[in-house]
Fold this protein.
Amino acid sequence: MMREHQLVIIGAGPAGLAAALEAEKAGLEDIVLLERDEYLGGILQQCIHNGFGLNYFGEELTGPEYAERFIDDVRESSVKIRLKTMVLNISPDKKITAINEEEGMIFLKAQAIILAMGCRERTREALKIPGTRPAGILTAGTAQRFINIEGYLPGREVVILGSGDIGLIMARRMALEGAEVKGVLEIMPYSSGLVRNKVQCLDDFGIPLKLQHTVDYIYGKQRLEAVDVIQVDDNFNRLTETKERIECDTLLLSVGLIPENELSQDMGLKLADGSGGPPVNELRETEIPGVYACGNVLQVHDLVDYVSEEAEVAARGAANFIKDSLKKREKEIIIEPGRGINFVIPHKISYQDESRKLIRHFLRVDEPRENIKIVIRDEAGSQIARFGREIVTPGEMETVKLPESLIPEGTGKLEFSIEAEGVEENGK
């Protein structure tokens, strides 16, 4: 039997929870939250370190504490929660097929859908590291779950490949649990995580970070025994004379996150270059009207605070779509990344909103730079705004709030680019 609902949210991590609460606040009364895991909160439940909530709540929380604030509110709301429910398919006309052990197959029809499935980690297979296939090779997130939720220490002598935030955090976590972390390897000439995590997780614990290094070979039969570590040049060519063998029983991989967009692609959504998620407008609406995406399924965020804020944007958009209160612009504005920018979100501005004064944009740069300006130009090439930054890195997301009043009437394109002309005050 097909059950009809106003709004269905896929995923009950930080994005799904925030979206559910904001949608109810916006006046929706029939909201369903589907989660494949056995608990709410998603990845936050295994992130027991602090550093969450500084922007959103104005105080420092652990991951479970941050999640608990949303979970408590959701449980007291009218939102219908279905745990241990796997979504199998979503059709372009917003029909959802899911399954769980209590109800069996479930068929839902939604007026609007919010995609909040999060992301997953890249594995050894994605890197094609040669060698044997012993035990002891884990993604950093898997190791984090083993320690913080299951209560197991994955190994005693550890090498970490990749300097993403979770890899840096797990270097500290493994050291605190008594393991010897022999080093963190990063193939790029810079760390790909937040500066604060490098300082607090590596420098403060004396853990070496080897830039422009990678794993060249893996040894071991039953259990990992050693890895060959090699330096690369600026073109990623291996420098054979630098090869070094390091004995270890555990290799943790922190080599990037991939937005979980299998369901998105199955329903016909294409994925954008750079971000890995579907193209969206300023309300986080995808190319399918009434289908929204937010959180790490749209773009991998550094801070969960931004995930919550973005989910609220998507929820307000979905609520207004259901109420049919959105007004299209006469000319849609396409947003393009220019020099020095990998991607910008949103990808376009589609709606008019007389109450809206600022449009927040998220972007990532292609390499570290100092004393630059993020410059926004219209389709005629005229500069309409610039935002000064002392330091930008690919590992740290940048956000700018563009006053809508600065967007020229009738323009059809905005380009974001980097210009190295020193730091100036924000504004036009």
Remarks:
- Residues 423-428 have pLDDT under 50 and may be disordered.
- The helical segments are 14-25, 63-76, 124-127, 140-150, 165-176, 195-201, 262-266, 304-323.
